[in-house]
Write a structure and sequence with these properties.
It contains nine helices and eleven strands. Helices cover about 35% and strands about 30% of the residues. The protein is α/β, with parallel strands linked by helices and about 210 residues long. The radius of gyration is 19 Å and the shape is elongated. The longest helix is centred in the C-terminal third of the chain and has 14 residues. Helix 1 packs across helix 9. Bound molecules: phosphoribosyl ATP and magnesium ion.
């Protein structure tokens, strides 16, 4: 049995075409079913649905053999014990710093002020600001980061941006791009040794199906 960990939403939706190339069709729509384990057209392959931030954990400890996860989640988790053969170039976005339109980020940085930054990505944010020598107080949030500058909780946020519509709707502006993000295939290293042929088949099929840049 091969177990693939996916999260509902864009990761699941954008992985389906890659699975199709590997000859694997998921037999149920996760938006319509409450099942957490989904069978596929291949009796030896199943999909487990986990929170996006739990995909690396499942794969690291062998709860799943492979998984698809955002680079944001992967870097924040740490990639100990995970083989990362492919950048799938799906679920693309960027990790950015954003502030209220009336907050002067550039002069706060220039003057060496302490900046209050709210984010789900405390590790990545700490590393980024430390590398620039910017002093920050980090505030950990689990969602709706955009609200933090609007309520006075923080001066800035570090969050994912794709179209920019969410920032715009909340009168925030992107002031720095930290890194480009896309989804990665991650593989449990022991599983790769024990189930080499079927896992290689999936890696090769995914590799042949990656959208071009
Ligand atoms: O939603 P939940 O809390 O269950 O988990 P999650 O938010 O971690 O999962 P999900 O499915 O939203 O995201 C899974 C992965 O998709 C992330 O880890 C990223 O690698 C990738 N991804 C790509 C994105 C986006 N694009 C994205 N735009 N993840 C989140 N967003 C959010 C962003 O946080 C912001 O709130 O969408 C909003 C901005 O979008 P725009 O288009 O308005 O700029
Ligand atoms: Mg989300």
């Amino acid at each position: 049995m091969i177990t693939l960990a996916l999260s509902k939403g864009r990761i699941f939706d954008e992985t389906l075409p890659l699975l199709a190339v590997a000859g694997i069709e998921v037999s149920e729509d996760p938006e319509k079913s409450r099942k957490l384990i989904l069978a596929t057209s291949r009796p030896e392959v199943r999909v487990v649905l986990v929170r996006a931030s739990d995909v690396p954990t499942y794969v690291q400890y062998g709860g799943a053999d492979l998984g698809v996860t955002g680079l944001d989640v992967l870097l924040e988790h740490g990639n100990q014990g995970l083989y990362q053969p492919l950048d799938l170039r799906i679920a693309a976005c960027r990790l950015s710093v954003a502030v209220r339109a009336d907050y002067d980020y550039a002069s706060a940085v220039r003057q060496g002020s302490r900046i209050k930054v709210a984010t789900k990505y405390v590790g990545l944010a700490r590393e980024f600001f430390a590398s620039k020598g910017v002093h920050v107080d980090l505030i950990k949030l689990y969602g709706s980061m955009e609200l933090a500058p609007l309520t006075g909780l923080a001066d800035a946020i570090v969050d994912l941006v794709s179209t920019g519509n969410t920032l715009k709707a909340n009168h925030l502006v992107e002031v720095e791009r930290i890194m480009d993000i896309s989804a990665r295939l991650v593989v449990n290293q022991a599983a790769l040794k024990l189930k080499q042929a079927p896992i290689r088949h999936i890696i090769d099929a995914f590799a042949s199906a990656i959208p071009s840049a």
